[in-house]
Amino acid sequence: MANVVVVGAQWGDEGKGKIVDWLSERADVIARFQGGHNAGHTLVIDGKVYKLHVLPSGVVRGGKLSVIGNGVVLDPWHLVKEIASVREQGVDISKETLMIAENTPLILPIHGELDRAREEAASAGTKIGTTGRGIGPAYEDKVGRRSVRVADLADEATLAARVDRALLHHNALRKGLGMEPVDRDALIAQLKEIAPSVLEFAAPVWKVLNEKRKAGKRILFEGAQGALLDIDFGTYPFVTSSNVIAGQAATGVGIGPGSIDYVLGIVKAYTTRVGEGPFPTELHDEDGQRLGERGHEFGTTTGRKRRCGWFDAALVRQTCATSGITGISLTKLDVLDGFETLKICVGYELDGKQLDYLPTAADEQARCTPIYEEMPGWSESTEGARSWNDLPANAIKYVKRVEELIECPVALLSTSPEREDTILVTDPFAD
Ligand code: IMP
C-alpha cells in the first residue's frame, strides 16, 4: 500500500508515537494533518526518549520528509522551542526534512489565554479539561475567517491586516470576560520576530504531496488525539476542536480521499481518558489504579493523571466504522499481565434496553451502564513479546476476542515502548 493513515481509535494516548515511528521507516513522507501541540507523542529509540508535540514523529528518522499540514493549528513559539529541543538531542531538522503548509493557521498567545480563561470561568460539569494550549480558540478563528496563517507572516501589510481582523473579535470578547485588550503593535512585533523561523519551512504542501504521490512515494499520515475526541463523532462537547477521524487526513494536507490505501487504528488493550467527559468503563477501584500504575498513565503534554478503565469494544467498533479502519495496532497488552479476570464492554444498557453503540445525547450517555463479558487473565509476562509463540494462551484468546467484537483484524501488536517489541501480522505498507 502506498499511503497509510494512523488514527487513535479511543480518547488519545493509545501509543501512536511508537507505531508511527515504526511505520515511518517504511515511509518516504510523514504528515501531521490535525491537532496542534496539545498532542504528546513519546518515542523510545535505542533507549533514547524523544517527546514530540507538534513535529511529526518522522523527524527523528533521517532521510524522511516530515510535513505539518494545513489541518494543524501551529503555535510558532512552541514550534521553535520543540525544534531546538530535538536538535539538542542530535536530530537534524532543515527545510529539506521539514515542511509546513503555507495555509496553516497560527495559534497566538491570545488563543491560549482565552482557552485558559474560559476553563477557569467554567463551573463544575461544564469544564472540558482542555490542555490549555489554545487549540479550540485557534480553530474557532480558522472557521471564523480571522486566522493569521503561515503565509501571512511573509508580508508586513497583510500581517497587520490579519492581526487587526482577529483583534476586532478578540478584544470585544476579552472585554466581556474582564480581560485586558491586546497590544496590537506588540503582537505584530512578536510575529515579525518569529516569522523567519517559521517561513524557513513554509511550502505548498498540497503540491509537494501530490507530486510525491504521483512519483509513487509512500506517505504516512500521522493523526493526533483519538477518534472519540473528534469534534463531530466524539463525546461532544468534551472533545478537541478538530476532526480526528481518518477522513481528515485528506483535507488536512490537500490530497484526494482516494489516495488513502490503508487506515491503521491504534487501540490500547484497555481504555484511558484525560480531561472531562463520559467514560462508561471507567474504574474507580484498585483495578483502575493498577492499570494507571502499570501503564504509566500520565499525560505527555500536561502531566495529568489519566482516567483508566476496561476495554470498551462497543466504542472501538464505532470508531472502526467512522474512520474506516482497515486493521488495528493493539498496544500495551503487557499492562494487563497478572489480572486474574479481565472485563470487556460489549454494549450498554439504557433504560432497560440493550444498545451496541454509545448514543449521541449527553444525558443518555450518562445513563448508559456497560454490559461486560469476562475473560480469564494470565499470570505470565507478555512484555517484550515479539511473536505469537511468546504469548500465553489466554492473552491470545483476549486478542482474538477483541478482534471479533470490534469487527476488525489486528495488524500489529505492541508489547513494550521499545520499537522492536512488536508482533507484525500485516504490514500496512505491504502491496
Ligand atoms: P484541547 O484539545 O486542548 O482543546 O482539549 C480538549 C480535550 O481533548 C481534553 O479532554 C483534552 O484532555 C483532550 N486532549 C487533547 N489532546 C489530547 C491528546 O493528545 N491525548 C489525549 N487527550 C487529549
TrEMBL record:
Where is this protein found? Cytoplasm
List the cofactors.
Answer: Mg(2+)
EC no. given is 6.3.4.4
Q: Active site at which residues?
A: 13 (proton acceptor), 41 (proton donor), 142
The residues the record assigns to binding GTP are 12-18, 40-42, 306, 332-334, 414-416
Query: Which reaction is the catalytic activity of this chain?
Result: IMP + L-aspartate + GTP = N(6)-(1,2-dicarboxyethyl)-AMP + GDP + phosphate + 2 H(+)
Task: Identify the metabolic or biological route this protein is part of.
Answer: Purine metabolism; AMP biosynthesis via de novo pathway; AMP from IMP: step 1/2
Record note on cofactor:
Binds 1 Mg(2+) ion per subunit.
Q: Which SMART domains match?
A: Adenylsucc_synt
The positions annotated for binding substrate are: 300-306
The Gene Ontology terms for molecular function here are: adenylosuccinate synthase activity
Q: How does it assemble?
A: Homodimer.
Q: What is this protein called?
A: Adenylosuccinate synthetase
